[in-house]
């Protein structure tokens, strides 16, 4: 009887606790964002390309990347450096050919790295054939974009609403050919597709199907909150957006509160529809799960809906920008802890958490939070439960590069002025990747690069950091190795601030060693008692990872009730 019930228990356990692979490879994956223009140039034109990425895939393997998402590689006039897609089915010649892309997929498969593409549903380029045909009024494409003839006030023609574009100025641009305004939430060269037209939705789903059938493992979906505007009223008009009184510049995006142009309820359903496409292709092709990563700077309750509900699957990875958006150089450990809890405590229980600490739109970690916090932040990123997302260069500690107004190319900055561009420009985080101390940091053979190279490349580069025991790169690699531990993959999480200066996380799993990440984010020497916040620690703990601020070494022991931390010391300990 006992034997029988044991067997039943074991069988049940097998049924109820699926292996990690069955749960989905992505649940504990390390994602890495490649900005292809700046990763590696293979053909000497000073701009990175697909063959460059293929050449360097072994590096991604070296740092343990599971999947990489590539910023757009499609045909584009590059008004927003590829986020203005002219043909959703073609590779831009600047990046290479379809054959180059196929080679990239083949090489990635050999190395067991999954390729994820950027999907830009909100808009196309104004040079996209769909837009040209829409502007010409062709029946099939007439309503592919959002058009309006405008209002006439005192005999003067005006845009239909006061809506302001993310890149400054009106969201409406007059089109002479069509004799109407078209809507663009971003640049005038990025007209918004009309998601109230079912044919647009279908056309964009076809784009997803095409690339999935080619062998990509999913998409990062761009600018999700912007996809829908409020529905027009019965007269075909839209309401103006209210003012944010604290902003005085009427051209600035933050001048208005975007209640009618962002986070409309229809957006959630669209994400579910995109997921359906993904699930259908999973059923059609089999193999590993395909995934959606969604880019939305949106309220937490909206983000949680992206995950899905009781009847619909959603985006497996709604980017968690809590830390990237809210932590600054002065934040204390309580604030870090609160933001981490925000996600963990609000996430549906069967979903995976994700942590994004950098991307091509945001100031780099070392510049935003301080160069001496780079390792601490990477420790946080890689020991929190679930999915980590690293932006290229953060693993070696690249920092923002000053680029003068004359050299600035980012449209978000170029549409402003010499006084304000530094607040808006994203060029400083998009500079060429620093591979070595050789000419042009080993990025290109060209004499010039599309954006200036960082001055510090002789010190901050992959080649040099490989040879320094406690370089950012080697610490990153040690953390990645640690992620193979079952506790890091499946363990519970507890997050606590020990005063304003020290943040600690504990990962634990029954029958396994626990891991405790302890970060002194400030400049005082601290002595902390980990027993005061965590239970079931062994009285002694072992150092597993240290940074270069630490006076301790790997495998040293410390008492859990008095861990001494140097200024900005960041460590991972384990129970013994
Ligand atoms: C978000 C992208 O990350 C950004 O780089 C781009 O400018 C906008 N979406 C518009 O596509
Ligand atoms: Mg090139």
Query: Which regions contain 5 or more consecutive residues with pLDDT less than 50?
Result: 1-16
CATH topology of the largest domain: TIM Barrel
Strand content: 15-25%
Give the number of helices: 18
- What is the β-strand count? 23
Question: Structural class of the secondary elements?
Answer: alpha/beta
Instruction: Assign the CATH architecture of the largest domain.
Output: Alpha-Beta Barrel
State the helical fraction. Answer: 25-40%
- Tell me the major beta sheet: 8 strands, parallel
> N-to-C terminal Cα separation, in Å?
38 Å
Mean pLDDT: 96
What compounds are bound to the protein?
Answer: 1-deoxynojirimycin, magnesium ion
CATH superfamily of the largest domain: Glycosidases
Net shape: globular
Question: Mind telling me the CATH class of the largest domain?
Answer: Alpha Beta
Number of domains: 2
If strands are numbered along the chain, what order do they take across the biggest sheet?
13-12-11-5-2-1-15-14
Radius of gyration, CA atoms, in whole angstroms: 25 Å
């Amino acid at each position: 009887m006992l034997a029988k019930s044991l067997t039943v228990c074991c069988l049940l356990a097998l049924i109820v606790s699926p292996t990690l692979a069955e749960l989905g490879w992505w649940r504990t994956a390390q994602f890495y964002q490649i900005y292809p223009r700046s990763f590696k140039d293979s053909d000497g034109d000073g701009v990175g390309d697909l063959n460059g990425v293929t050449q360097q895939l072994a590096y991604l393997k070296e740092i343990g990347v599971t999947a990489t998402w590539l910023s757009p590689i499609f045909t584009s006039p590059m008004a927003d450096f590829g986020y203005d897609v002219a043909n959703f089915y073609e590779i831009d010649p600047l990046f290479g050919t379809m054959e180059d892309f196929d080679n990239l997929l083949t090489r990635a498969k050999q190395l067991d790295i999954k390729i994820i593409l950027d999907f830009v549903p909100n808009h196309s380029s104004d040079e996209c054939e769909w837009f040209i045909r829409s502007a010409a009024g062709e029946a099939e494409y007439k309503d592919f974009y959002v058009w309006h003839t405008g209002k006439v006030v005192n005999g003067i023609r005006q845009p239909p609403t006061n809506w302001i574009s993310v890149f400054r100025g009106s969201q409406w641009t007059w089109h002479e050919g069509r004799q109407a305004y078209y809507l663009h939430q971003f640049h005038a060269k990025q007209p918004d597709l009309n998601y109230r037209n079912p044919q647009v939705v279908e056309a964009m789903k076809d784009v997803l199907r095409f690339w999935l059938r080619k062998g990509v493992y999913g998409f990062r979906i761009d600018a999700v909150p912007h996809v829908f505007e409020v529905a027009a009223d019965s007269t075909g008009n839209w309401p103006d957006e209210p003012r944010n009184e604290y902003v005085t510049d009427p051209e600035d995006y933050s001048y208005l509160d975007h209640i009618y142009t962002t986070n409309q309820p229809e957006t959630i359903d669209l994400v579910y529809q995109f997921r359906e496409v993904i699930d259908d292709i999973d059923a059609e092709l089999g193999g590993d799960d395909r995934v959606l990563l969604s880019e939305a700077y949106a309220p937490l309750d909206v983000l949680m809906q992206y995950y899905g509900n009781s009847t619909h699957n959603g985006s497996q990875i709604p980017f968690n920008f809590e830390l990237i958006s809210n932590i600054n150089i002065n934040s204390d450990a309580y604030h870090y802890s609160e933001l981490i809890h925000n996600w963990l405590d609000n996430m549906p229980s069967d979903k995976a958490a994700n942590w994004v600490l950098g991307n091509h739109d945001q100031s780099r970690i070392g510049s935003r939070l301080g160069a001496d916090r780079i390792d601490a932040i990477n420790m946080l990123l890689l020991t929190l439960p679930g999915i980590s997302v690293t932006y290229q260069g953060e693993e070696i500690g690249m920092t923002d590069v000053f680029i003068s107004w004359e050299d600035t190319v980012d449209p978000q900055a170029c549409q402003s002025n010499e006084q304000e561009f530094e607040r808006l420009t994203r060029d400083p985080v998009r500079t060429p990747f620093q591979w070595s101390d050789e000419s042009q940091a080993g990025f290109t053979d060209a004499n010039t690069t599309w954006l200036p190279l960082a001055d510090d490349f002789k010190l901050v580069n992959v080649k040099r950091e490989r040879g320094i025991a406690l370089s950012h790169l080697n610490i990153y690699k040690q953390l990645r190795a640690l992620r193979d531990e079952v506790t890091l993959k499946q363990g519970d999480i507890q997050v606590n601030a020990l005063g304003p200066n020290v943040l600690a996380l504990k990962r634990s799993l029954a029958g396994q060693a626990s891991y405790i990440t302890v970060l002194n984010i400030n400049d005082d020497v601290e002595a902390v008692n980990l027993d005061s916040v965590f239970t079931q620690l062994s009285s002694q703990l072992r150092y597993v990872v240290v940074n270069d601020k630490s006076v301790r070494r790997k495998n040293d022991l410390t008492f859990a009730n008095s861990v001494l931390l140097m200024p900005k010391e960041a460590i991972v300990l384990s129970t013994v």
